[in-house]
Amino acid sequence: MSDIKLKLKIDRLVLQSGFTKKETMLCPLMKIVQMRHKDVDKQQAFRVTKLVLEGQ
Fold first, then answer.
1. DSSP letter at 40?
2. Is 38 helix (H, G, I), strand (E, B) or coil?
3. Is 15 exposed, middle or buried, given 0-12, 13-18 or 19+ CB atoms closer than 10 A?
4. Per residue in 1-56, pLDDT tens?
5. How confident is the model at residue 56, as a pLDDT?
6. Residue 13 · residue 54 · CB < 8 Å
7. Distance from first CA to last CA of the chain, Å, rounded?
């Protein structure tokens, strides 16, 4: 999966959760991404999730 598609999916997760973007959301978001998208490796998921939480 491309970084752009993954970023959109993670943005959607954060938006639907109702919580504000914080560094503490990293672990739960990583778990959700790895459960839903088995084809995404951990490094890509971590990198994109980190970017989303930083607001870039």
1. S
2. coil
3. exposed
4. 899 999 999 999 999 988 888 899 999 999 999 999 999 999 999 999 999 999 86
5. 67
6. no
7. 19
* Separation CA 13–CA 16 (nearest Å): 5
Of 35, 33, 43, 34, which Cα lies nearest the Cα of 8? 33
The model's pTM:
0.84
Q: What is the pLDDT of residue 55?
A: 83
Which token pair is 7?
Answer: 């970023």
Q: In the structure encoding, which two tokens stand for residue 49, read together? A: 């999730």
Residues 6+ apart with CB under 8 A from 16: none
